[in-house]
Structure formats: C-alpha cells, structure tokens
C-alpha cells in the first residue's frame, strides 16, 4: 500500500496565533508558559488535521519558535561565544537573543546573521562555526514536541536538517578562514548520538534533509555526502528518509543510490516529473521512494488526474514502498483556504492552501491504494478546476499581450551612460558626500493600522482616511528633518505590504484575507495571487509622493516595488513563463515611474530585494534568469531623464556571483543589506569596480537593538575600505516598518551623526 506523509506544516497558526503570542512575549505581556501553550495548540491542530485527512505518518520537529536552522544549531550546541555574556537563565530567551539580539531576559547582543533559505522568501539564522567547534546535544526544544506527538500516533517521522547541508548553510567565523568540512567527522558522531536517542523516544523514521543536493556540488561536497551517510546509515537505529527539494538531483542518482539509507524523497514539482522515469534505473524497489508531487510553494490546485497518470508508471515497481507527499515543506503555503470569505467561487475553485494540499496528498494516496472510484468527487472537482482556469475570460487581456509583444531594446536603456548621468545629477541635486537616507518604510503604528482597518470596514470615509495617512506622512517628514537626513521618504503609511499594496492597484491580481506565510520569526507576509495578465488601473503612489514632497525643501524619494520582487513575492500563475509576467509588471511600473517624474518626483527607488531570490539553483539555468530579470528592471526604470535618479534596494543576498548583473541594472544608487555580516558583502568590490553609487546598510533593522554612533562609524569606515567615498551612501539595511519610533529616532540620529563625522574625516 502506498503511504502518505507531509514534509512540514505551517507553524504560525490559521489566525497567526504564534506570531501574536511571540510579539506579546517579547513585550513581556504574556509568560513563557502562555507562549508554550500557544505552540502546543498549533502543533495539536496541525497533527489532528493531518490525521483526520488520513495522513499515515505524522511529522514532528517541523514546528519552530523562530527558524528551523536555529533550532538545529541549538539542538547541536552551536552557540557563538558572544551569546555567553549576559545570558538569560532559560533556553528560550537565549534562543531569541541569537535570532534577534534581544529577549525578555538576558543582555542585548548583536544577533546572528539572517539570510534567504535557498530560492524562497523564508529567512534562516546562519550558523556560526569556529575551527575548534564542538557539538553537544540539547533536546530541550525538541523533546516536548516528541512527547506531544506520541499522543496522536505511533507512526512518527522526525524532520531534521542533514549534517552536510547544515555545514553548507553556516559560516566560518575566525580571523583565518578554515574549511567547514573539517568539522564533519565530529558533527556526524553527534548526529549518530541523536539518532540513537530518537530511537529510544519511539521515532521510527527521520526525514533527514539535504537540500544542497539540488545544487551544483563539487566533488568535495559530494564526497562529504557519501562520507556522512555511509557512517550514519550503516549504524542508524532509525530509518532514514534522505530528503531533497527545490530542484532535481538526476545528476546525482548514481551517488545517492549507493548510500545506506532507507528512503529517498524527490521534489518532482521544482525538479520536474521526468525524475520519475530516471530514478527507477538507480533507486531499488526494496527501498522507499517518496514523491513530492503536490506543490508546496504555490497555491494552485493539483491536477489530480495528471498526477495519478505520472504515478502510475512507478506504482507497480515500488508498491508498498511508494510514499506520496508535498514537494517541500508546506511552511511556504498559506494555512487554510476555508478561511477565505471574499474570493469569488471561480477563483476559489482554482486554489489549494496547506490544509487543502494535505487533503490532495491523502486523496492521491487513496486513489493508488483503493482505486480512483474512492476519490471520484475529488477527481471531478480537480477536472472542473483545470477546465475552468483554461477557459476563463478573466485570465487574458489582449491589450496587455500586444503591448508586451511590442517591447523593444530601446525601451530598456537610459538616455545616457551613468558617467554622464552622474554629472547631471550632482549638479541638479548637490547631495553631500556620504549622503544619508532610509530604505522607505517607517513604523507601522497602531494609529496607521486602525485607520486602514476603519477605511476597509467603511467606518470612515475616503477623505477621513486620506487625512489620517497625511498626518502620518507629516510625522515621518518631521522626524527625518529633525535628525538631519539628506534624502527623505514619505514612510509608506498607506501600504499594508510592499507587494500586496501594488498588486491591489494592478489588474490580474487577487488578494486573500488570511493567506499569511511566515517570512522569519513573527514576520508574516500575505502574497497576492497573479492569475491573469497584468496592467496598471491608475496612478498608484503619485498623490502620496506629491503630498510628502510638498512638506519639505529636501528631496523625497518616490517608492516603488520592482517587477522581479512583485513576481517573486506573489503566487504566480503557472500558464505563462516568468519573463512574460515580469515584463507585464515592468510596463505597469514604467507608467508609474513616468507619472512620478512628471509631477516633480525625481528621486525614485524601485526596490528589488528578491532579485537574487529567484536565481535558479543550477548555474546552467542562471544566465537566462539574470537576463530577463535585469531586462524587466530596466524596462521599468529607463524612460526617465538623466537628472532623475533611480535607486534600488536589495537585502539578504550573496552578491558575489551576480555582481555583474547587478551592475547591468544600471540603477544610479543601490542600497544593500550588510550590517549583520560586518560589511562582508563588500569584499567583492575590491576586485569588481562597481561603476554606480552604493549604500551598504549600517543599521540592522531586524533587531530592536539600537546601534551606537561608534558602531555605525566603524561600519562606514569599513565600507570606505572597499568602495570610494564619493560613491558611498549611508542608510539602514532595510525598511523600518517593523520597528517603533522609540527605536528608530535614536538609531537614525546616531546614523546621521556618524555620517557627518565620517564626511569630515574620510573626505578631507
């Protein structure tokens, strides 16, 4: 009999219960016991729901208070030395100190670096290794989850990041760089102890995840996989399901097939269904083959009939050893479509959130075990959904398609080269050396949220809402002028989210009420759904930007979200290639850019924080992506005059491999995240002479900790060692939406004072 399981479930709760509990705990409004109770309830709901749907194996260990990589670090005893000073007397607060630098108990400290989880919008806390790194097991976070799971099933499968991927994800922290793989023997021994312990706890299977198998690995890392699993698999007292996702591993089937593991999970959504016809030549029928055939990263309903057709070819070979699952963890999906009351029936019929995807896994398994008649109703609904989406008139817009077809190369080029634009802009703006600015957003206060809720509920008029937002813009301008920033922003008080806000003003987008997805910690986003051709309905930001500029003699940036980021942070349609969707969005943004310029807004920031996020994991596929994403940005930005300064922003990106593509964006100024990594990202500029201007972040906004003037000064001076001073800007890492004004005021004051001092010192 085929069996079903899920790689992981959302952990924020259907109503974001964990998010709100975390934030209450951090504000000392609830106790740690109350926080733990919310976590217990979230896990209980997840397991009960999966069991009710008929899922065979319950997954434990997929829950986290902040991030699963940080959980692994705590489990393995990998805690950087600086967190030993000022420790709290409990594990959870020390855990939060690593994640965010601050907790209800314990001294504030610089948090660990945070970066993107492969090519997703999820962020993980980067492990920090030393050459003498030791490992020791700490079960305090995991043990309560296992004990709770035993109440629901004896068939338990534990989710665990594998040792080789864990090392890959971490960074060597030392004055002298060292080979992280030198730590592998010690780490494998610790994993052996862990697996032995899990057996005594009643765990039968361990879903041991090695997502780096979907990357281009050199022999050193491939040999590390062989070494690790030869040791682990030969002595493991629990069964190991080697788990991969986010891409294909067909080029490694021969190596993987030799490993002494008990099962293999393939992502046949991201990696392609062709893997199923290839894996049979390598993977023995005596071992479990888990097929991730339900998309864990998008919201479209599974074509059950097509999935069953693909599975039919391998059903007879693997029989009882065929497992069905999601392609990856459902962490990347909203929780439950049943919560949505405002989507129309047609669109709803096309969608599946995490709860519905679990049902799809159960239905596919039941069809293989009992026959298709057992799930006839589900198959008929799937067929109707597929047919409806293909024929719906809401999907296609001939005007948009014609405009996209008529895009020429000239539309993607600025009027002059940057060397000429730079002279024109310096004469036009006369910004100082080391000009200061922020990335765009300012704190989303209770008054902002109340005004937005009241307007959506029709409790206040549009005029009253406009006045309320204008009041917030006035405060943002006043605060910036008070600390002396050189280039201002309007604060984005009117925006619920940097992507959703724009999607609401564009045709081809739909929006959910409760489609929240965790980005990191308590931070959740609600991605729009791109279901059809995209065009601008009307001007989006012009009136807010005009109003803000009217309040100050200093320049106020127009703030837009770029085409690749809007695409990356939405659930995109599956019937149109990504480059075409990006160009449609870029044309809509180009209209907005030109309208801003026409109304006197001549510093315009087009954010692309997700530029690297969509980069394919395989190098052979990267040039095509970089070409169309660069072209989309240039299409959105290139219609303006030389004196209009185009900014862009990127965060949580390893830029080294794509720096030439970033330069090809041809933005006049780029701002990047760099403070948590001590300007490590800027080392690339020692060799690559970046032609335009750049603002490396000197204020880590993802921590409530306020940087001192001395710390900011140190980062500015460090940046100046890599980039000429006349090319540098001074700014935070990212937007300030998640902070409060009591944190922002002193931090920006320190930033400006440090910039003024550095201006005198470095440009003398």
TrEMBL record:
It is an enzyme of class 2 (transferase). Keywords: Amino-acid biosynthesis, Metal-binding, Methionine biosynthesis, Methyltransferase, Repeat, Transferase, Zinc. The active site is at residue 702. Its cofactor is Zn(2+). Residues 4-316 form the Cobalamin-independent methionine synthase MetE N-terminal domain. Its EC number is 2.1.1.14. Pathway: Amino-acid biosynthesis; L-methionine biosynthesis via de novo pathway; L-methionine from L-homocysteine (MetE route): step 1/1. Residues 434-755 form the Cobalamin-independent methionine synthase MetE C-terminal/archaeal domain. 5-methyltetrahydropteroyltri-L-glutamate binds at residues 16-19, 116, 523-524, 569, 613. Binds 1 zinc ion per subunit. It catalyses: 5-methyltetrahydropteroyltri-L-glutamate + L-homocysteine = tetrahydropteroyltri-L-glutamate + L-methionine. The keyword Nucleotidyltransferase does not apply. L-homocysteine binds at residues 439-441, 492, 607. Zn(2+) binds at residues 649, 651, 673, 734. L-methionine binds at residues 439-441, 492, 607. Pfam families: Meth_synt_1, Meth_synt_2. The keyword Repeat applies. Belongs to the vitamin-B12 independent methionine synthase family. Catalyzes the transfer of a methyl group from 5-methyltetrahydrofolate to homocysteine resulting in methionine formation. This is 5-methyltetrahydropteroyltriglutamate--homocysteine methyltransferase. The gene is metE.
